[in-house]
Amino acid sequence: MDNILQKIQFIEEVENNFNIYPLTRARDLINEDLRLHTYNSNNISLELQLLIALRFFAKASYQTETGDLHGVSQASVGRIVLKVARALASRLPQFVYWPENFRGFKQNFYNIRAFPGVVGCIDCTHIKIKNPDGRRPLLYYCRKGFYSLNVQVICDSNTRIMDIVTRWSGSVHDSRIFNNSRIKEDFDVPIPFNRKQGILLGDIGYACTQYMLTPLLQPRTAAELRYNAAHKGTRVVIEHFFGRWKNMFKALRRNLGTKLSTAKIIIAATAILYNIRLERDNNFEDDSSESDSDNDDQPIRPNPRNE
User: Fold this and answer.
1) Helices in the chain by DSSP H: which ranges?
2) Does residue 201 sit in helix, strand or coil?
3) Are residues 183 and 70 in the same domain?
4) pLDDT tens digit string along 159-170?
5) What pLDDT, in 10s, does the model give residues 138-155?
6) Among 19-28, 107-116, 199-208, which is the least confidently predicted range?
7) Domain co-membership, 235 together with 128
8) What does the record give under GO molecular function (predicted)?
9) Contact at 8 Å (CB) between 175 and 205?
């Protein structure tokens, strides 16, 4: 009886975190992929596989806890999480993309603090990973004192993810990630051939260009002060996004504890699930204090033994 009650509570926890629409949408999306790779010996239903993976993403439950709850081995839980995450991540272009028409997006940003021409806000956040070992593990050791992936995100005024880059190690600066990104190549295309005509708002870690606007370091005039206030008040949406994303998927706040390649897939999968939920429900918790900017902390001396 206790185990049955635990399972009921488990399902309720996942449903409360995602609501019914994202659960059914995610199931429909990956249903075929999961059927192609069933665990015949374990006879784990497709619905249970999805719930196990979502529990791992959303509740920050370690694989042993999730496995114990369902009588599934930790090894099977690990395979299920990877399989579900991979099936979701394969659909990234379907849910994380730039809009065709920016007019409405610019107006929505303008409505926040009267900052004209903005099409997106950009920043990076550190996602903790375990020591990746390999030839150069210190590449993943970030200034905050842990191993991480430095993940770049661009969001719209509603905190919807329009672009995400998950491949960079934690020691890499935000500006380098952007300078080597496909999105920068798109913005560098001369007008009128540039499909992404508009402005990105970034912090002082980025170079100020015709399409990337950053705060003024020493504002003196009233106009400069107004510019900085409007910039800060508009760009705060990316901080809201990071807070919402990590509250929805608490696994992103702790050490994912998976292989490096799996961690990248999980991050992409949670980006899709976030946008799916945002389609129907914009009322969920955020943590506006969330900020992993390369410019908000002093560097920390790396300690290779810190894992």
Assistant:
1) 2-18, 20-36, 46-58, 63-70, 74-89, 92-95, 103-113, 174-179, 182-188, 222-248, 260-280
2) strand
3) no
4) 999 999 999 999
5) 999 999 999 999 999 999
6) 19-28
7) yes
8) hydrolase activity; metal ion binding; nuclease activity
9) yes
Interval 64-101: pLDDT, tens: 555 555 667 778 888 889 999 999 999 999 999 998 87
Dist CA 48 CA 62 (whole Å)? 16
165: in domain? yes
- What pLDDT does residue 13 have? 55
Within 10 angstroms of residue 191's Cβ, the number of other Cβ atoms is 8
Is residue 222, in this structure, part of any structural domain at all?
Answer: yes
Helices (H), 90-221: 92-95, 103-113, 174-179, 182-188
Instruction: Quickly count: other Cβ atoms within 10 Å of residue 133's Cβ.
Output: 11
Judge whether 301 lies within some domain. no
Task: Collect all residues with Cβ–Cβ distance below 8 Å to 211 and sequence separation of at least 6.
Answer: 187, 198, 199, 200
For tokens 């914009």, name the residue.
282
Phi–psi pair at 57, nearest 5 degrees: -70, -45
Give the integer Cα–Cα distance in Å for 203 and 152: 13
